[in-house]
Amino acid sequence: MIKMGDVLSVRMDKELEKRLAFLMEKRKIVDKSSYVRQLIDRSLSYDLLDYLAEEVAARHISIWKAASIADIPLRAMMKELAKRNISMYDEQALAEDLIFAEGK
To answer: Where are the domains of the chain?
Structure first.
């Protein structure tokens, strides 16, 4: 597991490096490490939301729990699910949310 401050080395092929250099030049970015960290953060956030949406759709977790894991408001999670055309609620989800809200 990578801890804050750990170094992660990544080899990039020429095409990826070319695209990165292009964006950095056009956006006038000079700190490559910081920029790559931002890109990774955005990508991981998107992938986490994608995974959580799949879990909600499969009824493995509730919307409330997914929002909690993603550390976003419930309304934002509901918006993400709507974008993906995932039905939002049923009786089972309500029961799970009530248990989760009570901290059991």
So the answer is: 14-102
Residue 1 has pLDDT above 70, yes or no: no
Looking at residue 4, what is its pLDDT?
65
| Alpha-carbon torsion angle 54, 52, 40, 11, nearest 10 | -50
* 58 token code pair: 């499969």
Average pLDDT (47-74) is 94
Which residues contact residue 78 at a Cβ distance below 8 angstroms, ignoring those fewer than 6 apart? 63, 88
Residue with tokens 């999670």: 77
pTM: 0.71
Q: Is the dihedral of CA 58, 52, 9, 33 positive or negative?
A: positive
- Asked whether 66 and 52 are in contact (CB, 8 A), the reply is yes
Which pLDDT value is given to residue 3?
61
Q: Which candidate, 100, 58, 56, 46, places its Cα nearest to that of 81?
A: 56
